[in-house]
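Hi V.,

Quick status before I head out on leave. The structure for the redesign project is tokenized and pasted below; the design run finished overnight.
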């Protein structure tokens, strides 16, 4: 990452949402509560306003580009810089968790409300989920954002974890559909204008467009090769088996695992099915 990118990024964020947090000081602060984890699956495009209101009234963890459907979340987690920029500029979040290269200094982390994990804290094996954490404890889930968000919910003290928008039945995301499709294109245009003088940011944004929004539309960006298989075509069987292991593991802590979508890998992997209205 270029020095200019760091300066340019944090030159745009001002004092918004200034807050210092660490993994340790969010531990168990929602003990015994229901926590909603919000993904990017197609099911989010089907939610009604009243259903979104029910979720917004709870404790929420947003993932990746969830801010279009749920602008306000208590927590947010991603491993992609472009998603972090999205959430900062267009979302509203009390605490962000970034899995990736430790690129942020203390001042930048405070301004972004970011908990910066390090490679030491990120492991692929998602079944190593503990309830008590120190700075040395691995945060599970580098392979799938769903795994990492689940570990965060466990650390927060969840009694019940409710998954929203994790169908894993389609390569599409909810923002591939109206009305979110127009919104994400508009925000991408605004982001590209904000970071127009920074090649690192522009390349990251173009990659996101080429993979997730308008596949192969930008020559030279990641995925422009016609033979390229998009990264979101993950190994379904592996993800299913890992989810089964995760759910079995966290149920030993007395945590309920719930899905609001019948046609979802979450439900198939062992989550109980509930209607959103049951959380009023």
């Amino acid at each position: 990452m270029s020095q200019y990118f760091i300066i340019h990024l944090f030159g745009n964020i001002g004092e918004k949402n200034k807050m210092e947090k660490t993994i340790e000081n969010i531990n168990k602060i929602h003990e015994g509560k229901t926590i909603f984890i919000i993904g990017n699956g197609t099911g989010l495009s089907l939610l009604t306003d009243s259903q979104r209101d029910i979720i917004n009234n709870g404790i929420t963890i947003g993932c990746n580009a969830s801010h279009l459907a749920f602008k306000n979340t208590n927590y947010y987690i991603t491993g992609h810089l472009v998603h972090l920029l999205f959430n900062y500029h267009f979302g509203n979040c009390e605490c962000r968790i970034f899995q990736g290269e430790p690129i942020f200094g203390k001042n930048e982390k405070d301004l972004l409300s970011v908990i910066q994990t390090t490679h030491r804290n990120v492991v692929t094996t998602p079944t190593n989920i503990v309830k008590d954490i120190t700075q040395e404890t691995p945060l599970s889930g580098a392979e799938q954002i769903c795994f990492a968000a689940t570990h965060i919910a466990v650390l927060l003290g969840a009694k019940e974890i409710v998954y929203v928008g994790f169908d894993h039945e389609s390569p599409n995301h909810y923002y591939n559909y109206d009305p979110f499709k127009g919104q994400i294109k508009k925000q991408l245009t605004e982001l590209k204008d904000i970071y127009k003088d920074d090649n690192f940011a522009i390349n990251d944004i173009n990659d996101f467009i080429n993979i997730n929004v308008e596949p192969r539309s930008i020559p030279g960006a990641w995925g422009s090769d016609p033979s390229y298989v998009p990264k979101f075509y993950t190994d379904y069987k592996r993800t299913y088996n890992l989810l089964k292991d995760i759910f079995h593991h966290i149920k030993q802590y007395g945590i309920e695992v719930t899905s609001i979508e019948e046609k979802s890998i979450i439900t198939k992997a062992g989550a109980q099915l509930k209607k959103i209205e049951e959380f009023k």
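Above is the designed sequence. The radius of gyration is 18 Å.

G. will cover questions while I'm gone.

Best,
W.
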